[in-house]
Design brief:
The protein is mainly α. The radius of gyration is 41 Å and the shape is globular. The termini are far apart.
Length: about 400
């Protein structure tokens, strides 16, 4: 029995051996099969990312122009910026707001850049009161308080036609002067002022308007603002005219937070060379009357909008803002009956005279001896709506 078992085991051993050989022989057979197996998925894995990378490369390829325009912007934002340029404007202008800790040097640079831009927009800026000599200018400036320059220009031809010199106005009948000045408002107080300053010119200055600030401010009805208007435009001496438009705009632009005219004058005077003071005043006042209005600034039509910290206080839609423009910017007559030639060359329209006949004036619609006045008579009906501001 033992021998049989041994034989069986002996015979079993060689039986298992071939099985092992078979497995051994199959192992090398599987080995070559396994070698290509990892090679195949390896290629598949390499090609798979390539397929995934292809759509990724295609996706940003479409908004590539938008990325070139705004490097860090999302393609969707860039596309919307192109689709709605008017809405993109506030985004560009927001950084224009000066920081709270803006240095004096940065403020000077910003203020002077705005003035340069305004100089390009209004190269024809000028005093908007008609005058032929310093006496007419000082009287017209006193009359311009609480009214428009247009109304003063429509009134002074009758006044100076009847009282051409300080001596004539000093000896005038106050009631007759009041009647002439009635259209300007506050005509009784203004009559007292112009007659008083005419007497002072006659008695203290030999009938001549003085060319010094300290002398001008002694005249009845003449303050620093009026004095600087006269000095800058009649004598060529630099001065800053701080009227309501000037005060409003310099605060909007954050040039100063002062509210009193003399303090505003001092603050702004420190930002500009003295030689630029007179034209700076004209630039700012022109802009305040035509575009940067008190109640409805035409922000969407403003040429210095990218530099303005107050952008958005007014109408930002370009089409709606265009309708808010006044005087020559809106295609309407200006404030002077006899404006400078540079203003006419720039497309400005002379203002129409008053409806009532006045010495040297022409009634709108009537045949005129001169060509310029009839040309302005056409838009005259629409001009009263444009007087305010």
């Amino acid at each position: 029995m033992k021998s049989t078992a041994k034989k069986t085991s002996a015979s079993g051993t060689p039986a298992k051996a071939p099985a092992k050989k078979t497995s051994a022989s199959s192992a090398p057979a599987k080995a070559p099969a396994r070698k290509p197996t990892p090679a195949t998925p390896t290629r598949a894995k390499k090609s798979a990312p390539a397929k995934k990378a292809a759509p990724a490369a295609v996706t940003p390829a479409k908004p590539t122009p938008a990325k070139a325009t705004s490097p860090k912007a999302t393609p969707a934002k860039a596309a919307s910026a192109k689709a709605t340029p008017s809405k993109a404007a506030p985004t560009k202008i927001t950084p224009a707001k000066p920081p709270r800790n803006e240095s004096h040097t940065a403020l000077v640079r910003r203020a002077r850049r705005i003035n340069r831009e305004l100089g390009e927009v209004y190269p024809y800026a000028h005093p908007e009161l008609d005058f032929e000599n310093p006496f007419q200018l000082v009287v017209a400036t006193v009359l311009s308080a609480q009214t428009t320059d247009l109304r003063v220009n429509q009134t002074t031809p009758a006044l100076f036609g009847k009282y051409p010199t300080p001596e004539d106005l000093a000896a005038a009948n106050p009631e007759e002067v009041e009647e002439i000045l009635r259209p300007t408002g506050f005509f009784r107080a203004k009559t007292k002022s112009v007659i008083g300053l005419s007497k002072a010119l006659r008695d203290d200055f030999g009938g001549e308007v003085p060319g010094r600030l300290e002398d001008l401010v002694k005249l009845p009805g003449v303050g620093r603002k009026t004095a600087f208007v006269v000095l800058g435009n009649a004598f060529g001496r630099p001065g800053i005219t701080v009227d309501t438009h000037f005060q409003r705009l310099v605060r909007r632009w954050q040039w100063t937070d002062q509210t009193e005219p003399d303090k505003i004058e001092a603050a702004i005077g420190g930002l500009f060379p003295k030689s630029e003071w007179t034209m700076l005043s004209h630039h700012v006042i022109f802009h305040g009357r035509r575009i940067c209005h008190a109640r409805k600034p035409a922000c969407g039509a403003c040429p210095i909008a990218p530099l303005c910290p107050a952008y958005g206080e007014g109408e930002t839609d370009p089409e709606k803002a265009q309708k808010l423009l006044k005087y020559e910017k809106g295609g309407f007559p200006g404030q002077r009956l006899n404006p400078p030639q540079s203003y006419l060359d720039a497309g400005g329209i002379p203002a129409p005279p008053l409806g009532a006949p006045a010495p040297g004036a022409v009634v709108p619609g009537a045949s005129a001896p001169g060509a310029p006045v009839p040309a302005s008579a056409g838009p005259a009906p629409g001009s009263p709506a444009r007087e305010a501001g």
